[in-house]
Amino acid sequence: MGLRRYILTRIVLTLPMVFILGTLVFLIMRVIPGDPVRSALGPKGTPEMIQQIRQQLGLNDPMIVQYGRFLGQMFTLRFGNSLVGGHRPIINEMSERFPATLELVTPASVLALVIGIYGGAWAASHRKGVIDYSWRIYAVVIYSLPIFWLGLMLQLLFGVRFKLLPISGRIDPIIGTSLVHRTNIYTIDSLISGNWPALISVLQHLVLPTITLGLILSGIFVRLTRINVIETLAADYIAAARARGIRERVLVYGHALKNALIPVITLIGLQVAILLAGAVLTETVFSWPGMGSYLVERISQRDYNAVQSVITVFALLVALISLAVDVIYSLVDPRVRY
Questions:
Q1: Options 1.10.3470, 3.40.50, 1.10.3720, 1.10.287; which CATH number does 99-289 get?
Q2: Does residue 37 contact residue 50 with C-beta atoms inside 8 Å?
Q3: Could you tell me the residue ranges of all domains in the chain?
Q4: How far apart are CA 82 and CA 69, in angstroms?
Q5: What angle do CA 85, 86, 92 make, to 5 degrees?
Q6: pTM (2 d.p.)
Q7: Which of 5-14, 36-45, 158-167, 222-231 shows the lowest mean pLDDT across its residues?
Q8: How does DSSP assign 197-241, residue by residue?
Q9: Model confidence over 141-196: pLDDT tens digits?
């Protein structure tokens, strides 16, 4: 099967997954007890107001009609207006928050991969030694730590005790007034405008949440990389290369690690959901104004429409990244196409 046909096949297979994820989101939001409109309005909501908003949201329509409308909103990304905060279009609110999540998740993923891949390869090259046992203990301990606890400990240590780094927000409020917002990704905006004080402030605010999210995710990559590098080092071609006098460092990092990365690529797609869940907690701990904190805010405000929309976007992201991982996997290992 050629690459183009394989990609088309994966796209076709992704559509049912998106459909199933959307259906699950729709059903879960409908089986939650309570009236979302009554919960959002609180005691100030009169029966007339409640009925009017329910009519606007289409909650009085038959379930099949609501389901069809929901699928249309999901594929067109037109989620309607929020129930609170000025009743702004939800897609506009999410477009303001998503860049912040992207700015946090990207360096955290890079940090997790760097620590996980090279840590796992280092442990495999010193199997049953002190380095190996140290990395194995690290992987188990760091993966089992609650992400909010690790974030709080880093805040207390580096923010409160030593006062080295800020503990909340994306940028210093005063410096932020001079930053020109073009993409809402502050590192890019500060580079485009040449605002170096803003760039320094943004990077300082990124350090603690990035370390928190990246360390938690690195544990699973350490374990998987270690296992696969050990298996690869036992292969015949590695033994032949070792017999020819090739240095062990070249064998591990130049030959074994490349072949051991194929399962790691697959795991990246599977970790997307955990990454988004971790972003929710990390953003809450560090008051990071991204999609995660937006979801928590809307849950606390009983904004049914916004909560449903954010969960739907998260589900779509998981599906799209899984598709991208499948395509990358086929490029790395052409055997999967056949």
A1: 1.10.3720
A2: yes
A3: 18-76, 99-289
A4: 17
A5: 85
A6: 0.85
A7: 36-45
A8: HHHHHHHHHHHHHHHHHHHHHHHHHHHHHHHHHHHHHTSHHHHHH
A9: 999 999 999 999 999 999 999 999 999 999 999 999 999 889 999 999 999 999 99
